Amino acid sequence: MVVADRRLDGVVARDHVGVALDCAAAVGWLQPPVPAVTLIVGLSEPVRSRTGALPDDWIGGLGETGDVVEMPRRHGSLDIKLTPLGAYSVLGVPVSELAGGCVPLEDVFGRPGAQLGDLVRDTPDWASRFELVEAFLLRRAGAGPQPTPIVARAWSLLCASDGRLPIGELAATVGASRRYLAARFREEVGLGPKKMARVLRFADVRRRLEAEPAGLADIAQACGYCDQAHLNRDFRELAGTTPGDFVARQTAVAGRAEPQVTFVQDVATPGRVGSARLPRDRRRPAK
């Protein structure tokens, strides 16, 4: 398993991913919103979305709508997923300022952000590239603001319930008014608790769909939807399509991927460390 530096626990949402794509055709997919902040350092031709080519190096805030993402035939990048509260410390500004946006690292971090991308591209091996990014994140997180305890507690509870905990109950549990919690939560996490709960619940739906794509009614019930119709509505609003079409598209992407693809895309899970695929020079046991 590829393991991120343990000092970044709570800052990163999962282990790091290196993308090395060399295919006969571009690889595209529907990307619903995920409950994590994405930081990308590009090594070659950039990824494209509906709005055109993305910056070489960028950070994307939490959003409520999905996008169509396309990797060129040949593409390389470092894909880092930050927890929202980790991003709050790394950014040093309210995460809400990034909501739904994709901003060049230089615009967010100034000259150090621009230098990070250049240093990574000048580094020949994956292990050293990720060490550069980790050192940057550790410096920023150590010097940045720490989450408000009430927000940190609320985030932990919301994640533990996969977004199913009612917001009134959440506020009462952390000992805050709904209004105060919503304001602080939005600033430090990037979305208000109700919208964030919806994104978390939908991430749970996606994980369950990967395990059993045919059981939509059961998935709707397990994830706290009133019925499958409400699940279908979230799919249309968050992914821009139906559950069946979404699964078919993702299956088609997996079917087109060639052996040269190191990684295509996954679902980030906040607060949990999972597996990812990288060249062997980055594989090491968990500390």
What does this structure look like?
The protein is an alpha+beta fold and 287 residues long. It has helices spanning 84-91, 105-109, 111-121, 126-143, 149-160, 167-174, 178-189, 193-211, 216-222, 228-239, 243-256; strands at 17-22, 27-31, 37-42, 48-49, 52-53, 57-60, 67-71, 74-82, 102-104. The protein has a domain at 6-146 and 249-269. The protein contains eleven helices and nine strands. The longest helix has 19 residues, at 193-211. The relative contact order is 0.20. The model is unreliable at 257-287 (pLDDT under 50).
In short:
The protein has 287 residues and is α+β, with helices and mostly antiparallel strands. It has a domain at 6-146 and 249-269. The chain is 44% helix and 15% strand.
Give the secondary structure arrangement, pairings included:
Elements: E1 17-22, E2 27-31, E3 37-42, E4 48-49, E5 52-53, E6 57-60, E7 67-71, E8 74-82, H1 84-91, E9 102-104, H2 105-109, H3 111-121, H4 126-143, H5 149-160, H6 167-174, H7 178-189, H8 193-211, H9 216-222, H10 228-239, H11 243-256
Antiparallel strand pairs: 1-8, 2-7, 3-6, 3-8, 4-5, 6-9
Helix pairs in contact: 1-4, 3-4, 5-6, 5-7, 5-8
